[in-house]
Write a structure and sequence with these properties.
The structure is a homotrimer. Chain A contains 21 helices and eleven strands. Chain A is of the alpha/beta class. The model of chain A has no long low-confidence stretch (mean pLDDT 97). Chains in contact: A-B, A-C, B-C.
Chain lengths: 476, 476, 476
Amino acid sequence: MVSQIQPLELHPDRLFSSDPKQRELSRALYKTVANLPIISPHGHTDPSWFANNECFKNATELLIIPDHYVFRMFYSQGIKLEDLGIPRVDGGQVETDYLKIWHIFAANYHLFHATPSRMWMDFVFSEVFGFTEVFCPANAEQFYHTINEKLNSDEFRPRALLKRFNIELLATTEGAGDDLVHHAKLKGTGLEKTVITTFRPDDVVDPDNWKFQETLAKMAGQTGEDVHSWNGYLNALRKRREFFRQHGATATDHGHPSALTADLTTAECEKLFATVLSGNATAEQKELFRAQMLTEMAGMSLEDGMVMQIHPGARRNHNLQVFQQFGPDKGCDIPGRTNFVEDLRPLLAKFGTASDLRIILFTLDESVYARELAPLAGHYPCLKVGPAWWFHDSPEGMLRYRHNITETAGFYNTVGFNDDTRAFLSIPSRHDVARRIDCRFLAQMVAEHRLSETAAFDLAYDLSYRLAKEAYQLTK
Amino acid sequence: MVSQIQPLELHPDRLFSSDPKQRELSRALYKTVANLPIISPHGHTDPSWFANNECFKNATELLIIPDHYVFRMFYSQGIKLEDLGIPRVDGGQVETDYLKIWHIFAANYHLFHATPSRMWMDFVFSEVFGFTEVFCPANAEQFYHTINEKLNSDEFRPRALLKRFNIELLATTEGAGDDLVHHAKLKGTGLEKTVITTFRPDDVVDPDNWKFQETLAKMAGQTGEDVHSWNGYLNALRKRREFFRQHGATATDHGHPSALTADLTTAECEKLFATVLSGNATAEQKELFRAQMLTEMAGMSLEDGMVMQIHPGARRNHNLQVFQQFGPDKGCDIPGRTNFVEDLRPLLAKFGTASDLRIILFTLDESVYARELAPLAGHYPCLKVGPAWWFHDSPEGMLRYRHNITETAGFYNTVGFNDDTRAFLSIPSRHDVARRIDCRFLAQMVAEHRLSETAAFDLAYDLSYRLAKEAYQLTK
Amino acid sequence: MVSQIQPLELHPDRLFSSDPKQRELSRALYKTVANLPIISPHGHTDPSWFANNECFKNATELLIIPDHYVFRMFYSQGIKLEDLGIPRVDGGQVETDYLKIWHIFAANYHLFHATPSRMWMDFVFSEVFGFTEVFCPANAEQFYHTINEKLNSDEFRPRALLKRFNIELLATTEGAGDDLVHHAKLKGTGLEKTVITTFRPDDVVDPDNWKFQETLAKMAGQTGEDVHSWNGYLNALRKRREFFRQHGATATDHGHPSALTADLTTAECEKLFATVLSGNATAEQKELFRAQMLTEMAGMSLEDGMVMQIHPGARRNHNLQVFQQFGPDKGCDIPGRTNFVEDLRPLLAKFGTASDLRIILFTLDESVYARELAPLAGHYPCLKVGPAWWFHDSPEGMLRYRHNITETAGFYNTVGFNDDTRAFLSIPSRHDVARRIDCRFLAQMVAEHRLSETAAFDLAYDLSYRLAKEAYQLTK
C-alpha cells in the first residue's frame, strides 16, 4: 500500500466511457445538467439539522459513525465496531477518541478502492472541504482538524449547505408516530417547502417492528381513534397521513421484508388484526398482515393522492449478534430475492388499473429488473420503477439498471434519482454520480445510433430533474 | 419535447459499438449477411394474408391495434385501451376514428426512446414506406395518409412484401384444432414451402386454456378418435401432428406457465386425464397434466421427427381486468422465474440422451442463461437454446444472451434468430437487429483476440441463416 | 467450415479491451504480473504425477478423456461418449484408438469458438508444445505425434512442468479417507511445500455420497475412533484434519448441493446421526445432516485454523443415464439456484462474528454476486468471496464477477484466483486469463477515473498473487 501523498483531482470525465466518441457526447450532455438544482425526494437526513441549524461538530461523528456503508467495510475486515465508536445498545464502553477512529479510517481507506463510498468521500473532501490531497494516513490528522474547523463555521451550517448544494427539495423520512416538531419549526422560515417529510408507517403496520406496540399507543393519543379496532386503526392511519401532508409530505414509504400484498375481506382483516394485537400471531399471520396493509395503504393513496414507495427485500439485521449489541441499521441488512410478479397480484387486481394511483417500486434483487419490474411498469398505469437502490446505488448498479430496464419500460416509467442517504454531505456527490451515469448511458445510445442527440438532451434533463419532481408530485 | 421535424436516417453503423476497431469489423461482417434471405421459423403472422393476398387497409389497424408491444407502453402511461381502439370482448364502445388513434401514437412516440419498438417502427417508416422525416405530431397525418395509400397498392400486398422482404421461409403458428385452410389454399401457388404452419397444442393440452373443451371436441371430429380416452386422445394428437406436417409444419410449440415435465405411468395418466376431463382437477393436477403432456409431445417428436419448442414462464393475463375486458394478448403477460434444471428432469431422464430428438428452449428469465440453459444445452444432445425472446428480443437482450450463453454452450447449441412476431412489416427490421447485434458480438470477440476473423465470418453466416434452417430441419 | 491451415498466434493484447486507452493501461498492468509465480490453492490435479514423476503417455489420454469441459461439448452435439474413449463403469467396450478420438477432436474443434476451453487449448498448443499452426483436421495427426513425443521427454515430466510453469504452490484435493501416500512421498523432495493437499470430507459427511459407508469404515480404521457414535465421528474428523495438515493442507473444501447450514443441539445431532447411519434417513434428514456438518466443520476450523471453502449449488449427475453408464464427473453436473442469505444464517449466527475464522464462498449462481455474496462478504468478518467458478471461470464470467462484486465487497474481501482444474497443462493458461481479465477490469476503472493508477498497480499484484497466499494462509 503506497501511502505517499498524491494530488486529489476529481477528473472532469470521471464515470464517462473512455471511448472518445461516447466521452465527448457524455461531456456535452452532462454540461447541461451538472448545475441543475437537486431534487431529493427520498432520504434519511435528520430534520433537526435544518430546524435548529446548529453546526456539525466533528468529522468522525459526521462522516463515519452514522454511515453504515463505511463502517461495514471495516467490520468485514475484522475491525471491531466498538473500536469505531459505534454506540452499544447497552451503553457499554466504545471508543470515544474520535481522532483515533479517524486514523483507523485513514489506515483502511484503500478498502474502498473502486467503491461508491470512495467516490462520494473523495467528492466530499475535494468539493465540500476543498482538500487537494488524497486522504491517507500521512495527512489524516490535518484533514481531521481542518474539517472540524470548517464544520464550526457559519458556511457549514446545515441551511448554508442546503443552499450551497443547490438543493431545491429534500424529503426526510419519519415514522408514523413522529410528531414532526422539526418540520413544524421550519414553517415560516422559507424552508418549509424545501425540507419536507415522508410518511413511513412500518412501525405501526409491521408487527415484527420493535416499536409496533409503542407507536400504536402513541398514535392512539395523537388521533383520538380506537386503534385497537380495525376501523379505528385505519382511521388513525388516515389522520396521521393527513398530519404528514400538513408538513409537506407528498409520499409514503414502505420497507417490508417482501413485496407481498393481500386483499382480505373486512371480516378477515378484523380477525387478523385482533390476532396481531394479541401478540400471538404466527410469522405467516404477521406477513399476511403486512401484505394486507400494503393494499390498505394503496387504497388510502387513492383517497389522498400520496405517492406510495415500496422498498422490499432487505433481510434486516441478518447478523443477530450485531443487532443485539448495536441495534438496527448497522450494516448487517442483506438483500434477498423478491417476487414482484406474484406478490403484487392482489394489490394490482384491486387497484392496478387506476391511473391516478402512483406506486414506485424499488428492489435489491437486480434479477427482477428485466424480468419483472420493467414488464410490470411497462404495462400497469400505477407502477413506476424507482432508481437503483442501496447496494446498487453505484456506477455499475445504475448502468445495469438502465441497460435492463429501458428497452421494456422506456425512460418515462422511471422516476429520476433518489439519494436515500443520511450522509448529508454526500448528497451532491450522489446526484452527480447519477447524472454522470445517465449521461454516459444516453451518450452510448447516441453513439450507437439508437437514440437521437436531440432526444438525449431532453432525456438528460428529465432524468436529472423533471421526472423526480413529477413522480413525487412536487410541482403542485 | 421538441416536435420540430427532423430527418429520419437509419445510420449504417447503428447498433455497432462506437469503438472504431469493433465498428469496422462489425461493418465488414454485417456486409456479408445483410442481404441473406430471411428464415423466420417461429412467428405469429396471419396465414390468411398470404392465402388471400388482399391489401392491408389502414395504418392504425395494421401497426397499432394488433401490436401489444406498442399499446402496452401507452397504457402504462395512463392512456385507455378503449381510446386506442382495442376491441372489447363484450363488443362495447371503443374508439373507431383511426386517425385520432394515430395522433395519440404520434403524440406519445417519445415514450419509445431507446426501445426496440422505436427501432422497428423507424425501420418500417424508412425502409418499408420510404419516409425521410422522423415521425412526429406535425407530420402524423401525412404519414397516415401516405401509408394508407401505399397499403392500397399492389406492391404492398402480402405476397409482394414477402418477396420484397426476401423471406425464404415464414412459419406461422396455429392451434391444434385449426383446419389450416389458409395453408391449404397456398398449395400450388409456389408459396407452400415459403409459408408453413407450426403445431401449437396448448389449447388441447392445457386444461386452463379457455378453448380446452371446445378444441378437444373439434379434434374428435377431425380425427375420429375417442378423445375422452387417454389412448384416443394421444392418437388424435398424433393425427393432428400428421395433418400439420402435411401443411409444412416441421415444429411444434408449447407455451406453458412453467417448464415442468413429468413421467407418469399409463395408469396414472389415464386417471389424471379423467380428472382433467371431469373439470374437477385442482391447480396442481392441471399443472401435472401439462407436465406429462410435454413429455408425451417429446415422445411423439421422437416418432415423427418434429422439432419441439418450449416457451415457458409467461404469467399470462396478469392484469385480470384487462383480460376480462379485452381478452388475451393485450400486453399484460408478465415473465416469472423458470427452473429448467429441476423441471425438465423427468423428460430428460426419459429422452435426454436421444440425439435424434431436438428440443429448443426459450426463456423470459435471463438469470437462467448462464446458470441453467447453457450448461443444459452444452451437455444434452437433444437440447438447444432458442434466441433471446419477447421482452429480451432487443439489442441489450441479445447482447446479454450471447455474453451469457456462448462460453458454456458455444454457438452451435444455439439456433439462429426467431422474430416471433405478428407485426409482419417489422420482420425485416427484427432480423436486421439480430444480424447487427450478432456481428457486433463477433466483432468484439475478434477485436479482443478471442476469435479468429475467419471464424467470425463463418459464424456470421451461420447465426444469420444456416443454423435456423438446420435447427428447424428446413433443409429437408 | 474453413479447414485450411492458419497461423497460431496468441495475441499479446488478447482479452484486453480494444479501446486504445484501456488497452494501453491493461498492457502496462499485465506486464507487472505476467511472470509472477502461480499460486493454485484449489484444484484437482493428481498428486501421483508429482510423487512418481512419470511421463504422461498420450495426447488423447491427457487432454481429452479426463476433461469433461471438452467432451461435454462433443456429447452435446450427438457424439457418443463411447466414441470418445470415456470408460464405462461396467467395463464395457469403448473406443481405444486414441488417434481416432484425436481426429474427432480436430473435426469438432470449431465447437469451442469463443469458449474458454478453446483459449486454454490454444495456449497449451502454442506455449506448452510450441505449435505455430491452428489445430485442425489437416494437422491433427502431426499434432498428435509431436505431443506424444514431447510428453515422453524429461522436460515434460510433471516436476519439470511444475518448475517451467513457475508454480509456487499447488493444492490438490483428497477425500477424507485418502491415505495421502503421494503427498507423503513428496516429503524430503523439496516439493512438500509446493504440492499440498486439501481436506474434502464430502464422502463422510454426505449420506448421499456413493462412498459414504465405505469411507466411514476406512476412517474408523485410520483413527481408532468409534465412528458410529456422534462424538467419535467428530473426533475422527478432527484427527483426519490433523493428518491432512501434516501433509500440507491449510484448507478444507465442501461441495454440497446447497449452502444450507444448521445449528442443532447435541442430542438432536446424535439422533440425526443415528438415523443417517441406519440408512433410513429421508432426503430432508440427509440435507439437514449435511447442513449440520457444515457448521461442525466451521467449528473445527475455528479450533485448528483451517480455511473453509464452500462450493455449493451443483446438481450432480443430472443426466442419470450418463451417470449410471460412466460414473460421476462426466459433464452432466448442472448448476442450480443457491440461497446463501437464508441458508448460511445458522452457521453465521454461531460463528459469523469470529474474525479468526475464514470461510470462502463460491457460487454457480451468478445472480447472488451483487445481491447476496458481496453484501455478506462486505459485512461478516469471516466471509470472503471465492473467484468465478467452473462454468463462470471464463473471461465473461470473471468480468461479471468483478463488475458485480467490487462496489459492495471491494477487492479485499476477494481471494485471488483458483484454477480448480484437473487439466494440469492448462494451469498457466487459466491463471493468465485471470490476470489479463483483472488487469482489464482495473484498466477500465482507471480509464474512467474511478481508481488511481497507483492503486491499480498495487491491486494487479494483490489479485494475481498476494491475496491468494494470504487467504489460504500460505505465508505461514
